[in-house]
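Troubleshooting log. The previous structure file for this entry was overwritten by mistake, so regenerating from the original sequence record. Sequence copied from the archived sheet and checked twice against the printout by T.R.
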Amino acid sequence: MASTDPEIRRLSAEIAVNTQLKQLDGAGLIARTAPARRARWAKYLHQVDPTGAMSPEDRERAAKYALREDMARLSLLAVQARRELAGLADVGERAS
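Regenerated output below.
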């Protein structure tokens, strides 16, 4: 019987997906993850230009920087978390 605990369900799903993905070759992996990558890129395009007023070139450029901003923010959070775990808790302001 499946657990009703959300964390257990999430981890079980993550294990199942990773089990499937490890069996794919490069082309299969790219095909399997393409819909998620397209949806994520669409999120950034909409985030930077919700009304569609920008030119396609400007929208693409702004979305690229929005993605870079998110990746930098995640990197900062990872550094802060590692330092906190190492006992160096005073690492500056948390990313928000």
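The helical segments are 6-21, 26-48, 56-85. Archived copy saved in two places this time.
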